[in-house]
Fold this sequence. Notes:
By secondary structure, the protein is an alpha+beta fold. The protein has ten helices and seven strands.
Amino acid sequence: xLAVWRAVVFLLAGTVAAFVCLLALPVMLILCLVARPAxxxxxxxxxxxxxxxxxxxxxxxxxxxxxxxxxxxxxxDLIWFVGHALTGTxxxxxxxxxxxxxxxxxxxxxxxxxxxxxxxxxSPYPVTxxxxxxxxxxxxxxxxxxSLWATxxxxxxxxxxxxxxxxxxxxxxxxERVAELTASRAAALEAHGAELRRIERDLHDDTQNxxxxxxxxLGIVERALRRDPATALPLVLKAQDAASDALAGLRGVVxxxxxxxxxxxxxxxxxxxxxxxxxxxxxLTVTTLGRAPAAVESAAYFVVAEALTNVxxxxxxxxxxxxxxxxxxxxxxxxxxxxxxxDETGGTGLLGIQxxxxxxxGHATIDSPDGGPTVLKVELPNGS
Length: 384
């Protein structure tokens, strides 16, 4: 009975929608001829409502294609609109009428005698006696048995037809996915190139200079040993300090490629270390966080590191929160109570986050109205 009731509700909503579509059909035809953008907008709103209705009934969402700019791109939606306008009302009324007829037939013996003699109850034959009324519950049982099969079947058929027509064609979905993967590949290449340039810059501007300093100190030590070995010890110590500095710089570059703390303490421990060094008081909230692939954890670590750097440098915030939710996707949220107004086009930090996330086919959004607060939300697929 629950299936019948859900089907009745679904068909009732479809009947109302079909009646509205029927009234709007002449308007739609006129708009298709004289104002196509308005026709596309009306069609998109109607089909979006139908997708939602069918998804609630079936429990499976209907994918929506990218917004079209031509009527030829939505011919399947137009077929559904016209077909639903012309047939949806009839189908809905028929599907709802069967269970109502069953209820009415069962109740006929209770009220048939109240009807005037010249206008008896007719369902489906005139009931003019208790004998005729006695057979109505049997007829109601037949209606009930028929509605147990027909009403859900009509609802499933209507939902299936809508799903078939309103789903993007397989080729269109494939083309859309190819475009997404192409953009993701371009972002990955761009992020990879930026990472290589950063590593090269760090090695050239920092580590290389420190190693050159070590070589210079060793040259000075060599000359001191030839002239006066007694004065060489302080120079050897300076060369040793320079070598230690060069080693520390090299270790910093290695950590920037893949921080060892991720292996030792996991993503939550590594982020806790970042928070401990942040100039702005920051709290960490972790929800069901497990281990993700190393590349994903590394990307998440650098996203948080860059976000906290931006908060400390630009936000003027007094408080910050980092939230990690371990699911698929891995969700990272960085909130601060700063002055807001953050714009990913205004600097390299947020743009770098966008590129790093896009390389994993993820999404990054920032909500930063003037006056704050600022919320950076990142979703990274982790393959779990």
